Amino acid sequence: MSTKKPITVLCVSSYEKGHDFMRECKEQGCRVLLLTSKSLETAPWPKDVIDEIFYMPDKNKEWNMRDVIYGVSFLARKEKLDRIVALDDFDVERAATLREHLRVPGMGDTTARYFRDKLAMRMRALEMEIPVPEFMHILNHNDINEFADKVPFPYMIKPRLLAGAHGLKKVHNKEEMWNRINNLGDEQSFFLMERFVPGNIYHVDSIIYEHEVRFAIASQYGRPPFEVAHEGRVFTSKTIERGSKKEQQLLDMNEKLMKALGMLRGVSHTEFIESDRDGKFYFLETSARVGGANLSELVLAASGINLWREWAKIEILRGEGDYQYPEVQDNYAGIITSLSKQEWPNLSSYNDPEIVWRLDKPYHAGFVIRSKHYKVVEEMLENYTERFYKDFFTSAPMKDRPSD
Predict the structure, then answer these.
(1) Measured between alpha carbons, how far is 340 from 395 in angstroms, rounded to an integer?
(2) Is 333 found in the same domain as 245?
(3) 204 shares its domain with 343
(4) Which residue(s) pair with 393 in the sheet?
(5) Domain boundary residue, one of 106, 121, 154
(6) How far apart are the C-alpha atoms of 74 and 35, rounded to whole Å?
(7) How far apart are alpha carbons 201 and 219 in whole angstroms?
(8) Of 9, 112, 270, 374, whose Cβ has the fewest other Cβ atoms within 10 Å?
(9) Is residue 223 part of a domain?
(10) pLDDT tens, position by position, 330-379
(11) 387 vs 389: CA distance, rounded Å
């Protein structure tokens, strides 16, 4: 009988997600601990697989990092923490800082910065000759004016350390640019400015093990996430045609990027834009986590790969064994979600056999479809989008932080 002590995994998440990650850890025999926000105490966490939950005060959605270090260090007096994993994008730096402080193996502060800081990831991509839209750190005002004199408007002004479309502002001329910059006050250095590139936005969701991209799947958003978040739109995404030139370009760029940024093992959600002007792909941003907005359900429907569970397997292995993922299915999939004017929208008339997952969340409507044929998914998404605008759609101001 084995006497090997089970691995203890501390999951850090300021948003309710990662249920399958924790379930996989438990099924693999791990002890599962969760550090989350006090405001999520009543959230439906999978408590049947979590050994203990610890809560952080989260005034204004923020955690005091020194208190986090104190609390987790106190926990480590009686718990040997073998793995520390950030389940949400906002927690990547927290987990890295904890690993550095406690000397727990895994991604440290330097590499984590590449997957959280939009300025750092762009500078590194540029160094490795991966195309990126022209950008400028909002720091030196002379440099900013020179940039504005030679790079055509409009620009996107972006926070370096927030996720998704949160905090973005589009400016169309120098006056708007300086109004935005001046309004930032002492926060200016925490922002960057980037030439706005009109075009289609794609995302690549991948699994990396020992610096090698072991699995990756490319998809295309219907409307840019910025428009969905700030202007109110129905959100859609669909996997792109397998074997196409676009798929190969995206997968190649993603692989080059993961190596450039130093991803050793884990999962990543990365976005690229196909410029309307020159037809080229440009890198937009990446992350060391499963994509939000239920995109893991899109990937699961298309490929049979559960990114949360595969990520858990990788974290447990930690390079000490060969990682084998399940056989990949060759389906096409699409996702559609929207804010709903009804608390529990009636989707009973949406009963096509291609629907394989439904979103269960108040004031939201959504589902995932799956087919062996790309055109079926494409046409169904177009039809559903029109119907969603008529049946459910509403919009609301963007919250202080995104909820995906």
Answers:
(1) 8
(2) yes
(3) yes
(4) 340
(5) 106
(6) 13
(7) 9
(8) 374
(9) yes
(10) 999 999 999 999 999 999 999 999 999 999 999 999 999 999 999 999 99
(11) 5
